[in-house]
Design goal:
Blueprint: H1 2-20, H2 24-40, H3 48-64, H4 87-93, H5 107-114, H6 116-119, H7 122-151, H8 162-169, E1 174-175, E2 178-179, H9 193-205, E3 233-236, E4 242-246, E5 249-253, E6 284-288, H10 299-305, E7 309-315, H11 319-324, E8 332-335, E9 340-344, E10 347-352, E11 371-375, E12 380-383, H12 392-399, E13 405-409, H13 424-434, E14 438-442, H14 456-466, E15 472-473, E16 480-482, E17 488-489
Parallel strand pairs: 5-6, 6-7, 7-8, 12-13, 13-14, 14-15
Antiparallel strand pairs: 1-2, 3-4, 3-16, 4-5, 9-10, 10-11, 11-12, 16-17
Length: about 500
């Protein structure tokens, strides 16, 4: 069809174009009039395809023969060759209804066709691609700069340096630029290279039923400012945050009341579970941090509580975060595994291992992770922190027997993480090895960080209590649990 059009229309017309037309626009008008005349005589040349083919071939043929480079922008009106068409010339071609010669070609299509020749030249395409590449590169560069600035914001804390880094490098558990576990953590088959991307995609985007509660979590709002100071108790706030009040001292463990991730839209708390805020906390004698993951160390919570915190107990390296956030070095009790510190007469804190990892940004394991044994004048409380099953449970149970309370991890586990989170099949065994008289499980009921049903950890706790006859206490968020016997205090008492 194109060949036929060019033979019957282009060749005869091109000779007249050179003789009768002064510029390209007049040549195109001539072509349109020519085809319009044929349309009245019912010539098949008057099809829209013939019109557009003729229009395009003439424009491209003349332009490709020109040695001058093309310009992408619309030509300036001051140039005679590229002068804009007058309204009279348009009215000659367009009827009152705006259709071109009755062929369905609108003014917009006609104007686009006038610029067709500027897009068909290779140099024009190269310029357009260069401009697009420049814009794309600018967007990528701006995004990269934004990410770098964001990751250097205070919320990410700070990597150890100076004397603290020198102390870390002397640690027997620090090798090859990062902290290590007591026993190596084998790579899970799901985390190997062949399955990593697929597992990550499934974890982030796969819809798993039941990982979030269908209704708001039941919780109790206890007025902690009016809590009897002589009461020895634990108040759990969901996930791994809880308050221990014992013999006049208050310990706040891993408080996360604002943000469990670098950005607010990720790791949102379950509805009903976020009943406590930093302002609800009383004055804290000791803030205890098991490791620096976002769901255990919340920048906004810590900054809000800063003026009400006496001292901070944390693993080696994590103190650097607190110094950047304005804490004085003398406020920090920064311990390595198997170290201890005297808090007061009859009060000691022992730092012990757990099997986990650390990091708040891209660098892995720059600070240590730990469990703590709080030795009070009248009881011992084991704060297990996060971590998979290992020999340290039995070691701690033997060293500090009898242990009155053990706060154990239960939730946010996955088979791919079985070495760094406590799996359900090892919970009863770990609890028995600690030999604790009372058990409270945490790390559940507030965030969906794994793909198991949200209430599965509660089922695990009931199973340990009912089937394994273990002394597990299962309170609601905010309920007051008495340390003497594990009973739950009635609300508003």
């Amino acid at each position: 069809m194109l060949f036929w059009v060019s033979q019957t229309s282009i060749i005869p017309l091109s000779r007249k174009l050179e003789q009768e037309c002064e510029n390209d626009f007049e040549r195109r008008i001539y072509i349109l009039k020519h085809i319009s005349t044929k349309n009245k005589s019912n010539s098949s040349d008057a099809s829209p395809f013939a019109l557009l083919s003729t229009f395009a071939i003439v424009g491209c043929r003349r332009r490709l023969a020109s040695p001058k480079p093309l310009r992408l922008n619309r030509p300036r009106t001051s140039s005679r060759r590229y002068s804009q068409p007058s309204s009279n010339k348009f009215e000659t071609v367009f009827g009152s209804n705006g259709a071109l010669l009755g062929l369905g070609i609108t003014k917009a299509s006609f104007a686009s066709a006038l610029d067709f020749r500027y897009l068909c030249h290779p140099m024009a395409r190269r310029k357009k691609l260069k401009r697009m590449a420049f814009i794309f590169t600018g967007i990528i560069a701006a995004a990269a700069i934004g990410i770098v600035l964001f990751m250097h914001s205070p919320r990410f804390g700070q990597l150890p340096k100076g004397e603290r880094l020198a102390r870390i490098e002397k640690s027997p558990y620090y090798k090859n630029g990062q902290f290590q576990n007591l026993h190596p953590v084998p790579a899970s088959p799901d985390s190997l290279k062949g399955n990593f991307l697929g597992s990550l995609w499934k974890f982030v985007f796969a819809k798993t039923p039941g990982i979030k509660p269908p209704m708001p979590i039941k919780a109790v709002k206890t007025d902690l400012h009016r809590l009897d100071p002589d009461l020895n108790c634990i108040v759990w706030f969901g996930h791994s945050s809880y308050l221990i009040q014992n013999e006049g001292k208050k310990f706040l463990i891993d408080p996360v009341f604002c943000q469990a991730s670098p950005v607010r839209f990720a790791n949102k708390a379950f509805p009903g579970s976020e009943v406590y805020e930093p302002e609800d906390m009383p004055g804290i004698d000791y803030l205890v941090i098991s490791h620096d993951h976002w769901d255990h160390l919340d920048f906004h919570t810590v900054k809000t509580l800063k003026d009400r915190i006496g001292k901070v107990i944390c693993p080696l390296g994590a103190g650097q975060h607190f110094e950047r956030w304005g804490f004085a070095p003398e406020q920090l009790i920064e311990l390595e595994w198997y170290e201890e510190a005297v808090l007061d007469s009859g009060w000691r804190v022992h730092c012990r291992p757990t099997r986990h990892f650390s990091g708040r940004s891209l660098r892995r394991n720059p600070t240590h992770w730990a469990s703590f044994l709080l030795e009070c004048p009248s009881r011992k409380i084991y704060i297990a922190g996060d971590g998979g099953y290992d020999t340290h449970f039995a070691e701690i149970g033997k060293e500090f027997a009898p242990i009155d309370w053990a706060i154990m991890e239960n939730g946010q586990y996955n088979k791919a993480w079985k070495y760094i989170h406590l799996m359900p099949e090892f919970m009863s065994r770990a609890v028995k090895e600690t030999g604790a008289s009372h058990i409270l499980t945490v790390h559940h009921s507030k965030y969906a960080l794994a793909r198991h049903p949200w209430d599965e950890p509660l089922s695990n706790a009931r199973k340990m209590k009912e089937q394994d006859s273990l002394p597990v206490v299962i309170p609601q968020i905010g309920e007051v649990v008495l340390l003497e016997d594990g009973s739950i205090l009635a609300p508003n008492k």
